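Agenda item 2: adenosine-5'-diphosphate complex prediction
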Amino acid sequence: MTLAPLTVGIDLGTTNSLCAVFEDGKPRLVPNAHGGVLTPSVVAVLKSGEVLVGEAARELRLTDPGRTCAMFKRWMGQGRKIELAGKEFTAAQLSSLVLRSLVEDVKADLGRAPTSAVITVPAYFNEHQRRDTRLAGELAGLRVERVVNEPTAAALSHGYHNSSGISNLLVFDLGGGTFDVTVMEVFEDTLEILSSAGESHLGGEDFTDKILAWALGEIGLIFEHAEVQQPLLVARLRDEAERAKRLFGEQDQVTLRVPDEAGNVGHGARSLELGAAHFEELCEGLIERLRKPVERALRGARLGWDQIDDVLMVGGATRMPIIRRFVADLLGRAPQAKLDPDLVVAYGAAVQVALIADNKAVGDLVMTDVCPFTLGIEVTKELGRREVDGYYLPIIHRNTTVPVSCEEVVYTLRPNQTTVTVAIYQGEARRVGDNIKLGELHVTDIPHGPAGQEIAVRFTYDLNGLVEVEAYLPATGAKFHTVLTQGVSGLDKRAMKAALKDMQKLKFYPRDDLDNQRLLSFAEGTVKELEGEMRAALEAGIDVYESVLYSSDREGFAMMRAQLLQQLRDLGFPFPTTPEGESGRD
Ligand code: ADP
Ligand code: MG
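Presented output:
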């Protein structure tokens, strides 16, 4: 007997990743090794060469930042190498490690491995970034059934929960590193995405960085240099800044403790006071940057704020009062708060899985999406008597409902011109130089003749947000065709195989031991808080724990673990056992 293939829905976030399955007619989140559902998108490579992902890696970031890497989703599609513990990785490879960790969690939960996945991406992700996301899935051994826009997934989750009435909804998704706005119309079971806009380098981390930059300034350091000069101090201070940012949800004044060069915050540590009003002043520029994509999305949907019935808040950063107030001011009342901003995208990804499988539970739900950016080619313009190249001819305009296929006809410039290179771009600017180049299509064997021979260029944009370009020569009937694989991570079959093998070589730290590793990192972090005898005692406790952690004496280990947990409790630093996402040391 063979089991049916298992498809999972994955929210592969900049900060946190989640995995959901569709079960018994509804989506369910898969717990990770720590019992939580948010897995920090952080990867660490231990001295042993083993890979750690998630909470344990996030905690190691404080004590050993050189061995950990976070926020790599920001580098998707850029092809650059990221150095981690002396090895080089691409963002797609690091993302694949996060996905592999989620796969392990599914195995532990359901007793079998998923075979394929629906993975969400920010709507504003470009072609290269989407391809890298698919690649990450494949490197993790998953067939990627669909790449879905995050706000669209959020909309699906919403649509699944409310299937009555007509309304216009704006999805406001502010995550750790990206900002997306989507406007949609909900009519009974039909969700129609009207427009999408966003910024791929704006998120909650930028708010943390504002606090961090301010605090570094207060102690006479410059943000731009400090990370290189004082990595441990910065890692710890960033943690303090993150904590402060979250506390502004509950209090008007927060205290940041200033670590020393080694990242320690002893009893005599200096502290800095930051008021909510000052924090909001620091963030004014960021708030201004949120305004533009919102306006663009509304313009794209041809709607005004007075026609928006509700705002769906998505992403952890929308928990900040300053953001809620910003949205409430625009909407004229408080945005809805029915769905958990951290979970809604993952739930939606699982609903998408059910839609693809024609699951009866979502049977009547229909959804349409749009292409969030303009796609086109480079053309030459005749300006007066001059021929100037470098101009952009849009072929698919942004916010066109997908899937879509559009054609434009271009002409050869010179007599007897036998070849044309069609340069393909994505973006909104009038000149191609300001847009993103996606690739080229070479048209050859154009029959000899005068200038002005026709070439029909057709763009097809599918549900995954992937583009196919075709050129057709009416004179000969010849067709030229490309699916854009020239993207930074376009790998042919052989390269793919080699890349897969490379990634498989990396051994994961045993899942059953993850929490033990996390306890080690946590205890090591706590050492930094202590001085004198207390510090020495804890260090001794950790030494014993660490020595049995790597031994095969599991019974002895259980005892030592209990002892260390007790010691931490006694010291006033209880180990958070079921972190729901990012647990603080507060
Ligand atoms: P992503 O989709 O990028 O993975 P998330 O939706 O998980 O991001 O949001 C992560 C961001 O939300 C981080 O910048 C984090 O600091 C922020 N965040 C989470 N909880 C809170 C909170 N209670 N207050 C303020 N910011 C928060
Ligand atoms: Mg997100």
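Discussion summary: The two ends are 51 Å apart (CA to CA).
Owner for follow-up: CH.
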